[in-house]
Amino acid sequence: MGVAPSTPRLGEAGAASPGAAEQMFAALVGDRAYPVSSEFWTQLLELPLTQQWPRDRVLQACHAFAQNNYHTKHLAKILIHLVWCLQECTSASSVSSSVYRKAINAAYISSIFLKFIIENAKADNWQELCLDIDKDEKGLENFPSDQSVEYFLMKGVLNYIGSVDVSPESCYLHHELLNLMLVLMSTQLCSGPSPEPKDVHPFIDAAMLQDSPIVASVVQKLLLNFVRRPQIPSNGSHPVFSDDGGPGVLQRVGSAAANFVLLPYYTFNYFVSASAEGATSQLADNSLLVLLILIHYRKCISMNESIPTDGVYMSDSNTNVKDAPAFHENPYCKALNNAKDIQFDHADVEGNAQNGPVVRLSFASLFDALGTCLKDESSVLLLYSLVHGNCDFQEYVLVRTDLDTLLMPILEMLYNASRKTSNQIYMLLIILLILSQDSTFNASVHKLVLPSVPWYQERLMHQTSLGSLMVVVLIRTIKYNLSKLRVCTKFCFCCSGKLMHVTLA
User: Fold this and answer.
1) What residues does 241 pair with on adjacent strands?
2) Which residues contact 129 (CB under 8 A, 6 or more apart)?
3) I need a surface site. Which of 45, 46, 264, 427 has the fewest CB within 10 A?
4) Residues paired with residue 323 on neighbouring β-strands, in sequence order
5) Pair 20, 51: CB distance under 8 Å
6) Do the beta carbons of residue 395 and residue 458 sit within 8 Å?
7) 3-state SS string over 66-123?
8) What is the rounded end-to-end Cα distance, in angstroms, of the chain?
9) What is the mean pLDDT of residues 313-327?
């Protein structure tokens, strides 16, 4: 498979015979460069991708692709074709299955080889991706001359995610694009724990440069996916699966020769089942992961650069400006912090209207979704981000009468703090600290009486107020985790002190 045929062809009437499909993949990873205008790309993306190859051949294909990509630039070309397919999907009133197939396959093949190259990169400038394509090449006449391939790709992917609703027809493409996003942004794993000015992340840096309408629509759609938890149809078909339901050749590449995988990159489990706690949704889970990566990314700038007065960059005001880190403003974080409850989208107070697109969704639905999913660490991080950064959502939480929806899962996790990491406990305690600073909240939790607390094992909890339970759990957290939670202990005392003050009063 390492040698590219001179002219790969499909069978009669475009049918993909096993031999023809073998030739197409050999050509993709081979050393012959096919121009972006070649019919080869259309034929490749129309393949069903159902061949079964052993692990050693898959690894051979990955190595050959990475080596020959320096000359062929096939990675950049397939990414361009992916965007063209997505543009066709968004511009047409009705999308044919053939167009969906090509877009799905382009996203899937790109994910596989990008993942391999990123995991095996030897330099931190990502020159191995070879995205500097010749824009004078035939077929690229309409390619934006002022855009790089990575910007063109991120604009196309984000525009599709933000503008097209998840439906039974589009759900597979959404799934592949979210997986591709996770791969694209995993370049951060090759940097240190603290962002440095020299760090280069071509794709996520390009995402940060997108126009505000795209940013707002992406944040909104990712939140809606998390809230609505769309399901992949259990009786649906997908191009990367064979007729018997088994994974095709490229399915196997996802687990091949990973040097490190710290970012959650899920294999393609389309047949999910509902549990008693709610339906599992891979689309919802991946949407949340992508959203969290986008809103928490920080691009550090060199202090040799001037910091504009319009607030484009931010620095810590409590430290000397020469020593303080400075960051580009994150538009996705800003969009999340400015999100508004859809129930009040026509009730903006005069003078408080937002400039530009605003993310609007139902806070009630978001509140309920968080209460259902808080046992998951990523959902806790989303709640922390909202309570910490979005004043409107924080105020909404404080006026809810059913605070146990959020607090009971939090208290149960703190009760089992020995099974959690310090970071998890820190986020939970910060959430409680922020909420307990409001006197109305402190009074409300003591008015809310719980009939029972089944997970509290020390003694029978019957007709206990939510506030009393919070005090007991926080003290227990201090008692059993004092050595582990040196940084978090003061927050426990602060939260419990506020609540105990209300009890004594």
Assistant:
1) 247
2) 69, 75, 76, 114, 117, 202
3) 264
4) none
5) no
6) no
7) HHHHHHHCHHHHHHHHHHHHHHHHHHCCCCCHHHHHHHHHHHHHHHHHHHHHHHCCCC
8) 78
9) 49
Helices (H), 341-376: 363-373
Helix, strand or coil, per DSSP, at residue 504: helix
Helix (H/G/I), strand (E/B), else coil: 464: strand
The per-residue pLDDT for range 128-146, each reduced to its tens digit, is 899 998 888 888 988 998 8
Distances (CA, A) of 450 to 365, 376, 446, 492: 23, 23, 10, 22
Q: Provide the pLDDT confidence category of residue 324 given band limits of 50, 70 and 90.
A: low
Q: How many H-runs (helices) and E-runs (strands) does the chain carry?
A: 20, 9
Question: What is the signed CA dihedral for 463, 467, 468, 472, rounded to 10 degrees?
Answer: 130
* Cα Rg of the chain, angstroms: 25
Residues 6+ apart with CB under 8 A from 496: 470, 471, 474, 475, 478
Query: What length is written for the chain?
Result: 505
Per-position DSSP letters for 396-423, written without gaps between them: HHHH-S-THHHHHHHHHHHHTGGGS-HH
Tokens standing for 175? Answer: 């799934």
Beta bridge partners of 464: 450
Encoding tokens for residue 456? 């509290």
Q: Which residue has the tokens 């305690």?
A: 429
Return the bridge partners of 313, or none. 328
Cα–Cα distances in angstroms (integers) from residue 287 to residues 21, 162, 326, 418, in the given order: 33, 11, 28, 29
Collapsed DSSP state (helix, strand, coil) of residue 366: helix
| 433 token code pair | 């600290």
**184, 262, 187, 174: which is closest to 218 by C-alpha?**
174
- pLDDT tens profile 453-471: 888 887 766 778 898 889 8
